[in-house]
Amino acid sequence: xxxxxxxxxxVGLRTARVLREEGHDVTVIEADPxxxxxxREAGFDVIEGxxxxxxxxxxxGVDAADAVGALTGDLNVNFAACLIGKHHxxxxxxxxxxxxxxxxxxxxxxxxDEVVYxxxxxxxxxxxxxxxxxxxxxxxxAQNLQILRITITEESPIRGYTLSEVALPSESRIxxxxxxxxxxxxxxxxxxxxxxxxxAVLADFSELAAVRQLLVGEKPATAVAAGGA
Length: 229
Fold this sequence. Notes:
Blueprint: E1 2-6, H1 10-21, E2 25-30, H2 33-41, E3 45-48, H3 54-59, E4 67-70, H4 75-87, E5 91-95, H5 102-109, E6 114-116, H6 118-131, E7 135-142, E8 145-151, E9 173-178, E10 198-204, H7 208-215
Parallel strand pairs: 1-2, 1-4, 2-3, 4-5, 5-6
Antiparallel strand pairs: 7-8, 8-10, 9-10
Function: Part of a potassium transport system.
Pfam families: TrkA_C, TrkA_N
Domain RCK C-terminal: 135-217
């Protein structure tokens, strides 16, 4: 796939590097000459210019791009770049900083495909390090929702059950399931759950403790499955 990244700062270059390592084509736009040069030294094709201008985005190949990632620290530049990208048929991802009010977030979120908070993603990494063990936060997908990857252990209360028997809290859902080292895929009701299997779960923040208790078993569980004890 082909991507245009606006911003060669910490967030932009790290994102571009991950995409490149996965075999995608990446062009970076950066307004600051010194920062643009650092991007070139890192091996990227960097267009020096204002990412909020359509002519600059066109010179970076927005017409052929699959997606535009507007990842500068300037919200106005990011929003303008996303509007241009949307006009050219691209998927748009916009960086927004954590300190903006919810009303501002909603104003912009309605116009782009995805909003990312670098500070929140950094907090996920720190939380994973603190939690350790078999539960990993993958992403915050909304203000109150998080996706978790859970590895089933010998102590897990749901080990030995099938997916159809697992009763999660009301606002939580199993999104994917994988046996052992196999990639995760669509969860099927008759899939049996054994140690080493993996689950991807969507959970409301208010239910994280209950989900952890039910699936990881680090606290005594009072009910682990429909019709079970």
